[in-house]
Amino acid sequence: MKKKFSSIMTLAVALALTACGGNSNDGSRKAQELSGAGATFPLPFYNVVFENFAQVNGDAVAYGGIGSGGGVRNLRDEIVDFAGSDAFLSDKEMAEMNPVIHVPTCMGAVVLAYNLDGISELKLSGEVIADIFAGNIKMWNDERLAALNPDVTLPAEAIIPVFRSDGSGTTFVFTDYLTKVSPMWASNFGAGKSVNFPSGQAAKGNPGVAGVIKQTKNSIGYVGSEYAFAQKIPYARVQNQRGEYVLPSSATISAAASGEIPADTRCSITNADAAGAYPISTFTWMIIYKEQNYSDRSKEQAMATLDLLKYILSDEAQNITSEVHYAPLPAKAKELSMTNLKTVTFDGVAILQ
């Protein structure tokens, strides 16, 4: 599908090693050019996976990191093959579109990254985080922060919260967590891709938020863990439902997904009641239409889209997750996703036989 996105794209392009008119590796169809847009949260993982997919399958993937909200809009407008989103669609959103399926691609963590001179260790509870972003805790040496960090000398400086300016699945995950741990947040702000934060500095995308934190003393913001790691920004230990102060890792993110997963894979794993779980963990999804014949797409393009998703669910792709600071999908999520992919059709006929 060679159509231009209506919004500016931060492109992650995986170019096929074969010419566009060449065959895919099994020779059953011509190589295709796929396009997607959406979440910046999984972009470091997608960069690697799309390049590997191009080498293995001969298909090129161009992905615009424009935020989950923008990706879903582009899918609704039928100008992409798939949308990337850290927030699963609500029942209301799904009712406003043709039927879609959600395919989880990996798991990751939203971290509280901060910029405080000389401080490399920080502990935060959910209620304290909520009060910081609600503007109720304004100073770093507030007594509640000091009580959580008795061995740290916190500065008598104003806190500068940093948040997303664009419609963001990362914002949804973060605020979904806050609604579970703070009645104040739930009643005053709620969860969503866009939230009216009362004070602080806004930035576009995970890269934008990480960049502002990196450059702004006494700031704190929520970003995907890989972005904090890449910019060498410290991030806090967050108290989980068991009272443990946990850093994100492949193991602590996986612990958050130890519960039941529904058949359509739409579920939240924030504030999981599991030992060792990092409390702001999430799945991230690719969303596609169940009926793939739309906007003059060819059957070969539909087949390539499913080949991409099958590759992402493969052990080869999932083994990459921990290398780029994400976590692999649990076996149940992969099993459910393969079952759901078998319901995808072209002109009403199942693509996967």
How are the elements arranged and paired?
Blueprint: E1 11-14, E2 33-38, H1 43-57, E3 60-65, H2 68-76, E4 82-85, H3 91-95, E5 100-114, E6 123-124, H4 126-133, H5 143-148, E7 160-164, H6 169-181, H7 183-188, E8 201-203, H8 205-215, E9 219-224, H9 225-230, E10 237-239, E11 245-246, H10 250-256, E12 281-289, H11 299-313, H12 315-318, H13 331-341, E13 345-346, E14 349-350
Parallel strand pairs: 2-3, 2-4, 6-10, 7-8, 7-9
Antiparallel strand pairs: 1-3, 4-12, 5-9, 5-12, 10-11, 13-14
Helix pairs in contact: 1-11
What features would you describe in this structure?
Residues 29-316 form the PBP domain. Pfam families: PBP_like_2. Residues 1-21 form the signal peptide. It comes from Bacteroides caecimuris. Belongs to the PstS family. With 353 residues, this protein is α/β, with parallel strands linked by helices. It folds into two domains: 11-106 and 284-350, Periplasmic binding protein-like II (D-Maltodextrin-Binding Protein, domain 2); 109-281, 3-Layer(aba) Sandwich (D-Maltodextrin-Binding Protein, domain 2). Helix content is 33%, strand content 20%. It is built from 13 helices and 14 strands. A nine-stranded mixed sheet has the order 1-3-2-4-12-5-9-7-8. β13 and β14 form a beta hairpin. The protein is elongated, with a radius of gyration of 20 Å.
**Outline type:** elongated
Class based on secondary structure composition and strand pairing: alpha/beta
Number of strands: 14
Q: What is the CATH class designation of the largest domain?
A: Alpha Beta
